Amino acid sequence: MRSTMKRLVIVGLVLTGWHGVALAEDVSLSEKLTASHCGACHTFKRDEPHGMGPNLHGLLDRPAGSAPGYDYSDSFLQRLDGQPWSRELLDAWLADTQAIAPGTAMTYFQDDPGKRELIIQYFESSH
Asked: Cα–Cα distances in Å, from 75 out to 40, 51, 87, 90, 99?
């Protein structure tokens, strides 16, 4: 009985460790993907200055158009001002910024839902 319990505990620890490694790899992949797709125009750490686009630290649940000191385009504000950045809104935005806010300064089209999911996961993990 004791040996069976000991084996179960060891198996549980091994599986948990592997899950942790897989999770860390997903976070690393999402961070790299976000940096390569968004980092040319945006910054991500708290108190970093804006780039061409606003700083994205704490993006999820933040009202759109609310990064202090950033001058948003009129078309962006007309369509999105004050709406909270939800997972669903961010997914739609990443799929086609112009479909959400035609004429906005940002043009980005990510057709791959897997890549959009990884970018969203990055914002969830850095929230």
From this structure: 22, 19, 21, 17, 12
